[in-house]
């Protein structure tokens, strides 16, 4: 049985000691904490792609490089209500990120058992990386 609980960032410390504070720059962010028995807690955050070229060459490479610094698996999935069965991509693979086909303004979800990794990768996705 999978149990999901939506929490606001300000409540994250109460919900789980394993979630990172999410009040960076005073922005309230909502994320989902997945609780599955004794498995690690999975944190998911939705973010809008900020690069004008989408998750293409330079942005995908920058994200993959940042993801490779974390030992936990980080998954990125294109949020598409018309196709809820999208396959997630490994954030440490620039080729898999480009294969998502995420364009500027698209919404993606970032999931990992490491809340710090989720925040770092979500932050990179949300900014212009193709300068």
From TrEMBL:
Annotated Gene Ontology cellular component terms: cytoplasm
Function field: General (non sugar-specific) component of the phosphoenolpyruvate-dependent sugar phosphotransferase system (sugar PTS). This major carbohydrate active-transport system catalyzes the phosphorylation of incoming sugar substrates concomitantly with their translocation across the cell membrane. The phosphoryl group from phosphoenolpyruvate (PEP) is transferred to the phosphoryl carrier protein HPr by enzyme I. Phospho-HPr then transfers it to the PTS EIIA domain.
UniProt domain HPr: residue ranges: 42-131
TM spans (from-to): none
Locations listed in the record: Cytoplasm
Leader sequence residues: none
Pfam assignment, any one: PTS-HPr
A GO molecular function held by the record: kinase activity
This protein's name: Phosphocarrier protein HPr
Organism listed in the record: Corynebacterium lactis RW2-5
Keywords: Cytoplasm, Kinase, Phosphotransferase system, Transferase
Main location: cytoplasm
BP GO terms, sorted: phosphoenolpyruvate-dependent sugar phosphotransferase system
């Amino acid at each position: 049985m999978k149990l999901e609980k939506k929490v606001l960032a300000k409540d994250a410390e109460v919900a789980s000691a394993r979630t990172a504070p999410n009040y960076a720059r005073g922005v309230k962010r909502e994320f989902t904490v997945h609780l599955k028995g004794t498995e690690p807690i999975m944190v998911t955050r939705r973010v809008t792609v900020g690069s004008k070229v989408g998750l293409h060459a330079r942005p995908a490479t920058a994200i993959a490089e940042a993801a490779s610094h974390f030992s936990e698996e980080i998954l990125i999935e294109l949020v598409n209500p018309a196709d809820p069965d999208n396959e997630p991509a490994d954030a440490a693979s620039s080729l898999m990120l480009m294969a998502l086909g995420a364009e500027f303004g698209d919404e993606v979800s970032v999931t990992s058992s490491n809340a710090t990794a989720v925040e770092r990768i979500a932050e990179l996705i949300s900014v212009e990386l193709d300068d």
